Fold this sequence. Notes:
- This protein is of the alpha+beta class.
- It contains 19 helices and 21 strands.
- The strands form seven sheets. Strands 3, 4, 5, 6, 9 and 10 form a six-stranded antiparallel β-sheet that branches. A five-stranded antiparallel β-sheet has the order 11-18-15-14-13, covered by helices on one side. A two-stranded antiparallel ribbon has the order 1-2.
- Strand 13 (366-367) and strand 14 form a beta hairpin.
- Helix 4 (116-128) crosses helix 5.
Amino acid sequence: MGMCRRRTIAWGGIAAIAPSHASQSAETSKSATHVVLESYPDWWVRKRRAPPGLVVQGAEDLEELNRHMGFLHSLGVPLTLAERRTPAFRFFQDLEAWGSREAAPAVNQLMSPDSPLTRLIGQLIGEVFPSPSGFLDVAIYNATGFSQTKGVRKMSLRLVWPGLLVDADRSLRVRDLLVSRLVAASAEDAALKELEEQLKAANPVNAYRPQVRMPLCDRVAPLPLRGPERRPFNPVGVMRFTYSSEGKMKVEWLCEEADLDPAEWAKIGCLRKEGEANVEPQLTEWRMPSWQPQTSVPPSATRPGRIKVRTTAGSDGPGCGGGLRMRARHQASFERAGTLQVVERTFACTVDEFIAKMDLQLGKASVEPDGAKVWKQPSSQSLTARVAVTRKTDLRSPLPPTVIGRPNQVRSLVVIIAPHTEAPKKCSLNNLAEPKPRPSPSAAFTPKATAGEGGEKAPEAPSSPTEPAIPEGQLFTAAQEFHAVGQGELGLNIGDVVRLLMDPQVGTGQENVSAVEKMNVLEASSWAVPVDNTVQMDTTFNESTMYSIVEGTLPSAAVDHGLSGYDGLEIAFSNTKENVSAVEKMNVLEASSWAVPVDNTVQMDTTFNESTMYSIVEGTLPSAAVDHGLSGYDGLEIAFSNTKEAQQSIIKVDVASKEEFRIFYDLLGPFSWSSDKISEANVDSLHRISDYYHVEIVKAGCEELLLRLPPTGNRLVQAHKHGLNAQYERCVLDLAKKGTKSDLQD
């Protein structure tokens, strides 16, 4: 009873915080001083949608917010807030290092008084911001934990300098100066070089990125995994850098986490700095950093001679004026935050059928003034199908459906409309003519004919009349390694099997003397699949036996290029291991944008008609299924392997009975989802299964019904087990008011 009373008091204090946040809600996100990360509907949001943000003005409101953040952080339920930076804000730095699934780099490896990185940062900050008092303090926060976005552990450190006020321009200049110093010092300092190698060994994609998440607050994973990652910025301590007149620097810990209250840590780590009496705060005095090149440019005297370059047509180099050949500089494309992406598709059905299907999936469409029908999802992502009326004939001229939104939103919507649309066919003058053989880039330096003595051309060797020509499209194996030269060539390893699409050597007598034997290339793919990692596949999708890619073979480029429904992709296969492969033949998906590992899947009835159906075994659903926003399987057909479970047609499911799983599975078919199918009789089993398999749409429907059912002791245990914060708070408050001793015993 004492434990229940303490929980009631704690949640009673939390409940008092929610009205305070609601009273400070902003009307729009632009007018907010603090916003909710990813618009996450946290427990304090009484409604299903998070507000655009909070308006915190004045020292009293800020102190109250810091007190609430510290209180909730001490309870283990940190907020998910981010603050908008003021024109002048406290200088901060974010250090991030990716690890593996098991471990992340240690915090003291980067930040400690003896760390080479700490001393480099301290020296640079002391040069840029000379302090009259002779010292500078920095507060360090640690958010190391498991990142749900990439599925690995990540070390995140936030360094806040409370005594330094900067603006956006100065902050970027100091960041660039720090990066250049790190690059230069890593080549000379053995300790920094060793630290860099350790970080790259942990994960090769480590990088520095600026963040604005508030201290003591948690990060929210983006859709479709929207939820706290349980790695808030926890305080580590305050470190002091003391600078002497002799140019020496001393680094020491000033205080640690236990020395200050959580509210004080929130106050120290806050970046916003409001002016007083409409007077902007003064920026900290600094010395403008200047970039110094680390490598000297050689003088022109070392290369006095020049070579005039002549092009194929005979002109004298660039601009027909001679000189050195100028190499084209590739302009990197950057994607700014909030940039909208537009994807067009063509109708695979009639316009009326498309409109009817979209109304079933996304609700009734709204009609814009120009006659366009627009379907929108709750997260402000929009799918637009335009049907315009021409003025001359007054006939309906349908324009292709257009998907508009952020890149992650567009990908999920393209998957939704994939069964009803097709990729647009690009027309160009090159497509009108027959494809002609084109030599590889490295063949540009090969003589076109072998010259004999006296400058006469040697006669070409006639091809053997008995030897049949090798047909294009046949499979061949690489006899030796081939290193690609330029973008137009394909690198090969010994044993790679590829299909020959065009053979420029046909008719030249060199069919059998090529250094690399004929090879198979994917016809409509921008990436190549290593042949040793693939098995035979029926690309016609007509026969009953089809095959899937084995585990670990799908390159990341397949996901990067947004392949959906294979996008006309033909998978290369090897006909050398069909009978001896450890993985037996398997079913494959037609409308999948990711590959299912073969060893981790079981048979599933893809027709939805037969009585025997199977579920995925524990831990087998790849993270890519969640990353691509697959909900209700989205028409997905699960591959299976010929393992023990598949042979016996039996799979053990501990979370539910066969009948309970059948009810759950009926909600996942096309156009079968409805919250009305969830009742008091099946809500417990449906919530248990959906939580086990991470089917968020079913889980959310169950949670809505549970909030309407009477609170009981069993509901309290259920909410605690599955992390239902709103239901847990509701049951605790009800039992505290009406509960008896027998309820606690039950």
